[in-house]
Structures are given as structure tokens and as C-alpha cells.
């Protein structure tokens, strides 16, 4: 129960963060495109910025998933009662599906 709530909270945080990141990337891309239009530069700056933002978001997502999995492993080893609670919760859910 604790583990699922931690994972759910982490993913909810990432979704909110990605909404803000999308707004920032769109705004910054417009500014970079304007700079590229008025200065003697190429539009590849905008493309590189967007690709960098995508990979940054992907890395943050993977890092959060790894962190929540690591917490799951630590709690399972440190507190066997949590592991038992998690198993019984999972069994109860499977039982309710039948």
C-alpha cells in the first residue's frame, strides 16, 4: 500500500512537471526561433533544444521509476511486514477480480 502510493505520487508529480515543461519548451522554442530569424544563426538550435528537452524528460522519468523500484526493494528487505502487506494486498486484488 505504501509502495503503490509512493509510485502513484511520483508519477503524478512527473505528469505535473511535464505539463510545465511542455509550456516552457514551447515558449523557449518560439524565442529561439525568433533569435534565429533575426540573427545570423540556423534553425537547428530550436530542433536541438526540443530534442534535448525530450531526452531530459525521458531521463527524469527513468530516474523516478528506478528510484521508486529501489525504495520498493529497500522497504521489502528492511521491513518484511511491508512486503507481507504488499503481497496480501495483491492477493486480495486478484481475488476480487475473479
Describe the structure.
- This protein has 98 residues and is an all-alpha fold.
- It has one domain.
- Helix content is 92%, strand content 0%.
- Helix 2 crosses helix 3.
- It starts with a helix and ends with a helix.
Characteristics:
0% strand; single chain; 3 helices; 98 residues; mainly alpha
Blueprint (SSEs and pairs):
Layout: H1 2-38, H2 44-78, H3 80-97
Helix pairs in contact: 1-2, 2-3
Structural class: mainly alpha
Rg, please? 21 Å
Span between N and C termini? 21 Å
Query: Regions with pLDDT < 50 over 5+ consecutive residues?
Result: none
Structural domains: how many: 1
Helical residue percent? over 70%
What percent strand? Answer: under 5%
Mean pLDDT across every amino acid position: 81
Brief overview:
The protein has 98 residues and is mainly α. It has helices at 2-38, 44-78, 80-97.
